[in-house]
Design goal:
The chain has 7 helices and 5 strands, in the order H-H-H-H-H-E-E-E-E-H-E-H. With 161 residues, it is α+β, with helices and mostly antiparallel strands. The protein has 2 domains: 100 residues, Orthogonal Bundle (Arc Repressor Mutant, subunit A), CATH 1.10.10.10; 59 residues, 2-Layer Sandwich (Dna Ligase, domain 1), CATH 3.30.1490. Helix 4 crosses helix 5. It starts with a helix and ends with a helix.
Length: 161
């Protein structure tokens, strides 16, 4: 990564690093070099990341962190409210950045595991209306849709001919 793109990426995630520093200070934890590298790489992946994938990517770059260290770091980020942890159909835990003041839902391919994010004002309004009708005040929600993506559906249809 060029120094310019690294600087731009650091600026883009300044809120994340500030939040992490504040969390570490509140819990009297140190910001380690190892943690910085793992978090920086996670942020650059900008996707739904499994600890195992992060581990493999770091190894490809010649960085030998233990899988347990990566899990501890991701769990710390989750506890700090900076990432969300999801378990989709395959039961594998994936982590994604928890951007402030945003919300999205997921559609997941049950064949290849592809995850697409989407936003829908109509769905959000419908959920608020249903909660109100049922006498609830929503604090959070999650919507995950499962199906087959087009490439997997096409492959499946071809194999059944």
């Amino acid at each position: 990564m060029s120094p310019l793109s690294k600087q731009t990426n650091d600026d883009k995630h300044r809120w994340f690093w500030d939040g992490l520093d504040a969390y570490l200070a509140r819990h009297q934890l140190k910001q380690t070099k190892q943690r910085k590298v793992i978090v920086g790489h996670f942020l650059n992946m900008n996707a739904h990341v499994a600890a195992e994938n992060l581990y493999e990517d770091l190894r490809k770059e010649g960085l030998n962190f233990g899988l347990a260290t990566i899990y501890r770091t991701l769990n710390l980020l989750r506890d700090a409210g900076l990432v969300e942890q999801h378990s989709f159909a395959d039961g594998r835990a994936v982590f994604e950045i928890n951007r402030p003041n945003t919300h999205h839902d997921h559609i997941i391919c049950i064949t290849c595991g592809k995850i697409e994010e989407f936003e829908s004002d109509e769905i959000e309004e419908l959920q608020r209306r249903i909660a109100k009708e049922k006498g609830f005040s929503l604090s959070s929600h999650r919507l995950d849709l499962y199906g087959q993506c087009s490439p997997c559906l096409e492959t499946n249809q071809k194999s059944h001919k």
